[in-house]
User: Fold this.
Amino acid sequence: MEDITTERHPLRTLFKFLLLIGAVAAISKVVATKKEEYYGLTESEARAKFESKLGPRIGEEKASEVADQVIPRLKDSGVIRPDPMEQAVDTVKDMATEAADKGKDAAARAGDAVKDAAEEIQKKID
Assistant:
């Protein structure tokens, strides 16, 4: 009788490959389904939901730490939207920065105008 334990069988390899593909597909589907639960929520709503699901399992403090890592990634990927108050604060910060820049430019132009006027006066005096 011939020993076939060391031979590679193409069907066995194909079967293992198909199992691997099936496992990856199942995991991807579960992840996509979990993401769908959070689509359209604000950051605070998503954080509360996330912590309420994980809190009883791993503790409130640990759930908060995990949420601190997961929520920014969901926000960056566009799954959740920022809180309206956070958006307003960001808008105000942007407007303040823009106003400060305009003020700085105006002050620089005024300083140049004063310098030019002083030079003109000095020329007239001389």
Summary: The longest helix spans residues 84-125. Residues 41 and 80 are 5 Å apart (CA to CA). The mean pLDDT is 82.
